[in-house]
């Protein structure tokens, strides 16, 4: 099982990428909330 482990740097990169994706999604939702009449439907875009 040891051969399938990733380095701490790779693990951190994965976590950072996920967090950045969520932050981008939140920013996009804020913009669409102002632009769209039905912003809750946009939640399914993710």
Explained architecture:
- This protein has one helix spanning 8-35.
- 0% of the residues are buried.
- By secondary structure, it is mainly α.
- It has a domain at 11-36.
Concise overview:
The protein is built from 1 helix and no strands. The chain is an all-alpha fold and 46 residues long.
Q: For the report, how would you describe the main beta sheet?
A: none
Radius of gyration: 16 Å
Q: What global shape is seen?
A: elongated
Helical/strand content category: mainly alpha
Quaternary state, please?
Answer: single chain
Please work out how many helical segments DSSP would assign.
Answer: 1
**Helical fraction:** 55-70%
Q: Mean pLDDT score, rounded?
A: 83
SSE string, helix = H, strand = E? H
The stretches of 5 or more residues where confidence is low (pLDDT under 50) are none
Report the span from N to C terminus: 33 Å
Strand content: under 5%
How many individual β-strands? 0
Topology:
Elements: H1 8-35
Keywords:
46 residues; single chain; mainly alpha
